[in-house]
Amino acid sequence: MSDTAQRRGNAPAGERVADWADGRLGIYGIGRKYMRKVFPDHWSFMLGEICLYSFIVIILTGVYLTFFFHPSMNEVVYDGSYAPMNGVRMSEAYASTLDISFDVRGGLLVRQIHHWAALIFLAAMFVHMMRHFFTGSFRKPREINWLIGFSLLALGLFEGLFGYSLPDDLLSGTGMRFLDGSLLAVPLVGTYLSMFFFGGEFPGHDMIPRIYSLHVLLIPGIMVALVVAHLIYVFYHKHTQWAGPGRTERNVVGAPFLPVYIAKAGGFFFLVFGVITLISAAVAINPVWVYGPYRADQVSTGAQPDWYLLFVEGMVRVMPGWDVTVGGYTLALGLLVPLIAFPVFLGFIAVYPFLESWITGDKREHHILDRPRNRPVRTAIGAAWISAFLILLAGGGNDIVATKLHLSINLITWAIRIGVFVVPPVVFVITKRICLGLQRRDREKVLHGRESGVIKRLPHGEFVEQHTPLSQTELHALTAHEQPRPLEAPPAEDENGVPAPVSRKERLRLRLSRAFYGAESQVPKPTPAEYKALHNGHEGAAHAEERAVLEREH
Ligand code: HEM
Ligand code: HEM
């Protein structure tokens, strides 16, 4: 036996298995390359992990549910443990959901975990997306990953819609009726689309099996592939990071994937799973036995989708039910307008990175994150978008708001109609002002230090507050950002003296660029000269007064 073979033979079992795998898969090379990948440490980077872990929980519980759920619309007479429903005619899908809830061991808990995990998954995606939006991590080279993430969000919305339609209870059928109405509102091809999707006239007999295939196979399959691509991109591009000493556009400062990050991530997975399970065990969600089986001729108040689609419901509820007839065709604007507004509203977020880079002309790579206050216009746009989302969300629950607050539903509907146009611009202006105020405060802090709260009385009776100088790390964080200039208008004439007119598109771009980076949108950060003038005693005239106070203090 050769030396190496003998050494291998004596090696621990784990090492031998690893050697075996390396001979076939080359895992040592992959490990050397990726196991030392560095992850920066910041709480906001855990939002992506919450998306990932809740998605895993959804898949695990979803597979368990498939063992007992019957995606069939065949009519059966219920005869199970839930006595109030005994003898009621219902679809097999609904009956099997009742069985999962009352007769399958752990079934109700798993159903609840699946549903709660779905709610948390979508919430985590929204927050994760907004953290990328506000910090500008969608900029080059991460635009494709932004679009992959956005596709995950869009698919998640439909996956949730189809999921809560599966039990075929009165609420879920109402959701499908909503979808049917929207399809029918599409001009010219609406009826074909509806017939095609439902396999005949709504609700038909194919609806549940069809959305089942979409829910457990097609959409999750695409989502898993996209999540893998998303994470490969995160590895490939490396992580963005906050500005700080030693952190540049070319490095990443943080802990290595193995062993630090993997240990943290493993623990965090169980924490997420545990919290979802705890909520699911304690708080009821979607008690389908209360609603009864779906019947196309019935609907109740309080029929809302899950929170993430409530804004779409809101669009439909607040849109007046106008119909117009064009060329003999009736357009149901009450549904058609929301049908167009929904992708436009959501799509704005998807295309935002491209819009911003076109406006600002910034085509460079960025790996250092922006502090939201240093990009007031972007931050204000994000806040305005969120405010519109929340107002529409409230519109989706107008009946609940009316009954809980004892208000007229018409009053609420009008408040939402007006609010959705008025509130976002107001939020925009206020957010921008807050950002500029914060920039001013940062400037003060850099130049004069932090307010210490210690008030000193000078010998001649004047009171002054003492300021504590910032550490080098803090100074760096507050001054590391760039302050880009708006685009310059091209010369009115070319080099031959021929007038070079600026196109209307270009004029719009110049105006928007000024709005983004003009004097109105940023407070000049302190220059090294200003800082030195205050701290080294070479004060300029502007600082003479402050200097005098400082001198008096000493
Ligand atoms: C299934 C859903 C998703 C999962 C599992 C997921 C997971 C992750 C993880 C683990 C990271 C690295 C850690 C972090 O920065 O938080 C990440 C980064 C990223 N995600 Fe997601 N994400 C999802 C959805 C989204 C959505 C909806 C968007 C935006 C529309 C998005 C955009 C991004 C971007 C741009 C990065 C790179 C940022 C950077 O390097 O700092 N992701 N994602
Ligand atoms: C992002 C992915 C997913 C989301 C957002 C989601 C969401 C939902 C929701 C909200 C329900 C209704 C639960 C209830 O009865 O209260 C549901 C039902 C169901 N889901 Fe999912 N799901 C996802 C993925 C999956 C996967 C991957 C599977 C299986 C492989 C699955 C299988 C099922 C089954 C069988 C039901 C019907 C059982 C029941 O409602 O009790 N789901 N889903």
Features:
554 residues; mainly alpha; 2 domains; 62% helix; globular; binds protoporphyrin IX containing FE
Report on this model:
The chain is mainly α and 554 residues long. The chain folds into 2 domains: 35-40 and 47-246 and 253-363, Up-down Bundle (Cytochrome Bc1 Complex, Chain C); 371-481 and 502-554, no CATH class. It is built from 21 helices and 8 strands. The chain has helices spanning 3-10, 13-25, 27-34, 46-66, 92-102, 107-135, 143-163, 170-184, 190-198, 207-237, 257-282, 288-291, 310-318, 333-360, 376-396, 398-405, 409-448, 472-479, 504-517, 528-536, 544-553, and strands at residues 38-39, 75-77, 89-91, 255-256, 323-326, 329-332, 450-457, 463-468. Strands 1-4 form a two-stranded antiparallel ribbon. A two-stranded antiparallel ribbon has the order 2-3. Helix 7 (143-163) packs antiparallel against helix 10 (207-237) and helix 13 (310-318) crosses helix 15. The protein is globular and about 90 Å long. The relative contact order is 0.09. Residues 45, 47-49, 51-52, 55, 125, 128-129, 132, 137-138, 142, 145-146, 149-150, 152-153, 227, 230, 234, 239-240 line the site of one protoporphyrin IX containing FE (HEM).
